[in-house]
Description:
It is a single chain. By secondary structure, this protein is mostly helical. 75% of the residues lie in helices and 0% in strands. The protein has 13 helices and no strands. The chain has helices at 3-8, 11-58, 61-66, 82-113, 116-128, 134-152, 162-185, 189-197, 202-213, 215-230, 234-239, 257-265, 274-304. Helix 6 (134-152) crosses helix 7 (162-185) and helix 7 (162-185) packs antiparallel against helix 10 (215-230).
Amino acid sequence: MTKLEKSVVSPRLAKNLRRNILERFIEFGLLCSGIFAIFITLAIIYVLVSEAIPFFQHVSLYDFLTDTVWTPNYSIKHYGIMALVSGTLTTTFIALFVAVPLGTITAIYLSEFATHKVRETIKPVLELLVGVPTVVFGYFALMLVTPLLQKIYPDLTTFNMLGPGIVMGIMIVPYIASVAEDAMRAVPMAMREGAYAMGATRFQTAVKVITPAAISGIIAAYILAISRAVGETMIVAIAAGQQPNFTFNPVESAATITSYIVSVALGDLEHGGIGFQSIFAAGLTLLIMTLMFNIIGHAVRKKFAERY
């Protein structure tokens, strides 16, 4: 800006000019962040696909999807990803069975019943669980939860899917509670006042008015929880046994896709061998599963989204 322009432009206009330049700079920064995120996603997909293609040149897609035995590093090799998918789905469903009701009830309480002081106390404590390393949760499942379950069900093996599934659910509760509570608090106060004016109780307002109005945000919390459960590694790697078994019985040991990847990747694998390539085939399967859950969740959220 020249001296002549400075003398002509008023202070107010100069302030607006600086604000516009700053907003343009922020917009450019946000655009770069979005492009960078897309680039990273595409790079991950490229790595998985490019490394998985040689695997599928040795293993047919039919055997990969229909065989129920997964032994890529044994002398007799089988490549049935269903042995890992069954473990992943079983632990995920157990975790959601624990986390969805607990997280939803916690969100309703924090949003509609808790006082400001109680909410400001409980919510940070809940969010502390998110910061606990998952390896700690794994040993918590192995050393405490599983022995407690064995007192109820003595035939339960030391390594099983039930204990780690429950602990995964406890770990996921803060994700659901926090996101769902934010969605409920975003519901306009006029809807609450309208319900009270119609004679509804506080509980009826929370369950029949606020929860349906915030359903899209609540479903988004569930999707986040599913993605977190499907991708969990250390808890199941420590407490589930890392035995690829095609079973949906939660009291048996099993391996999930992520636990297989972490256990094999730490071994002495030949780079470029079929065992090494199987890591990327399993990772690609996990990516597709997560994408399917997200697409289904997005469709459900779009269908039930409220406009107000």
